[in-house]
Specification:
Blueprint (H helix, E strand, L loop, with lengths): L10 H8 L5 H4 L3 H6 L3 E5 L4 E6 L12 H20 L3 E12 L7 E11 L3 E9 L5 E13 L4 E2 L4 E2 L16
Antiparallel strand pairs: 1-2, 2-4, 3-6, 4-5, 5-6, 7-8
Length: 177
Amino acid sequence: MGEQPSTKFPQEIIDEYAVLGVDLPALFSAGHLGTRMEVRIVEASAERVVGTMPVEGNTQPYGLLHGGASAVLAETLGSVGAMLHGGAGKVAVGVDLNCTHHRGVRSGLVTGVATPVHRGRSTATYEIAITDERDKRVCSARLTCLLRDADADADVSTGTDAGTGTDTGIGADTAPE
C-alpha cells in the first residue's frame, strides 16, 4: 500500500476549503478501509469522481474481485462527489447503496467513475460505473447520501460532540464514506 497520490480538484473547490484550513486530500481520501484496500481517488469534482482499486488483495475465496470491495469503491467515490456537491457546510452520509455485479475479475486494476443522478439540498445520488482494464463493466452501483449540516461543535474525525462527548452520528466512518 503506497501513499495516496495527489487528487485532482477544481480550483474553486481548493479555494473554498483552503479558507477553512481544511486538508482536502485527507478529507476526501478513502479513509482507513479505502487505504487498506488501496483505493486511489485520481479526480474529484461534484460532477465526476474517478478512482481505482487493485483486484489483488480484494478477492473472495474463488479468486474473483469481492463484491464488497466493489461496494467500498462505489461508496467512496459517490460519497466524495456528494461531499463536494454539499460544500464545506455539509457532511455526506450514505443512506442507500445498490450494487449489481456483472462479471468477475481476477487481476489488474478496476476503475470507478461516479456521476450525479440527483443533486439536491438534502440528498445527492450518484451512479458509479466500475470497469476492468479492458473497459468492460464489472459493476453498476447507485449511492444516495443524506447531506447533513456540518455542526461547528462536532468533531468529524472522532464522531463526538466537542462539548458533550456524545456520538454525533457523523464520525470518521461516515465523513466521507
